[in-house]
Design a protein that fits this description.
Largest sheet: 6 strands, antiparallel
Strand content: 35-45%
Radius of gyration: 23 Å
CATH superfamily of the largest domain: BT2081, beta-jelly-roll domain
Distance between the termini: 87 Å
Helix content: 10-25%
CATH class of the largest domain: Mainly Beta
Structural class: mainly beta
CATH architecture of the largest domain: Sandwich
Length: 378
Amino acid sequence: MKILNLAVALGIFLSLVSCIKDEPLNAECDITAVTLDGNLLNREPIIGNNKVTLIVKNDVSLLEPLAPKFTLTPGATITPPSGTPLNFLFPQTYTVTSEDGEWSKTYTVEVQKNNTINLDYGFENVHQISAMGGLSSYDEFYEVGSNGLVSLVWSSANSAFALSFQASTPNTYPTYQGDNGVKGNCVVLTTRSTGKWGANLNKPIAAGNLFIGTFDGKNAVSNPLGATHFGTPFYNEPSAFSGYYKYTPGETYCETDANGNFVPVSGKTDMFNLYLVMYEVTESMQWLDGTNVLSKDNPNIIGTAEIPDRHASDEWVPFNVPFICREGKSIDHFKLKSGAYNMAVVMSSSQDGDYFCGAIGSTLMVDELLITCALEDK
């Protein structure tokens, strides 16, 4: 018996040595951080799946070359090299290649100052994003500015849902483009089952969501509430938020109990979320996330525009709600013009979906959103 145990132990040891010796090179190819020398940034860079936005101070001349320095996933390389001076009057393209040389990702790096984003959203434009090595693909919504260039890329948790292997085509993901909008296309959000993969992680559903901000896919499983970074710089004073929605709740509302079981809740019906929030960016709070985006005690939130009478409807429901500053809060116009505020539009097919509560099949359709802003500066 001792000889047998020794042989087993030796086999395990040799197996471990072999694993260490043959450990594969890293296949990741992501930008994880960006810096600019000289205290030029107005806030932390916005790093998305394939786009980086650098918000610089108003007195920074874009006529002068800028030399961003990139932190990459271990072993990865970037072209042009990190620290290369380039002209950022127009977006620049970088390619990140993984340590093993098998994978690469193209990033568009853009520098912005006091320019504003679109104020109306028709959800007519999508890119197809390949997932899981080409096994599936999903829709990524974007907006085009008056100059014909991409001015805003919407974020969703579609990239995390791909890990569940429950989707193949865009319309089997939680967030996708529909063709029966108020005008042309629209966005469709559906609460999906995450299958055995999600059940094993006590995350049985994925609500369809779309928001202005960025999604931190690396923390989507370990910290889903913190993975949603809501907000983008905003230089206008909002007065109202309007648009259209349809909503059909799923048949059975369920909650995830203390043991991780997804159990029905008698008498409860799912409900969607759709709102606008504006907040001040500070050193300690660069963005809002799922833990604090509507928190009543969040001191950074300036105000919100929320629909007071959300309800199910199979017809398009128009809404037009005012932007209301919270008690004791107001928009400081010096801070507004200096880029101290962020704005986010957030929508979800299950309002408690970030806590993995909701009804599979709940579907929200949204179209023709508009942010109305004050006409004159004060």
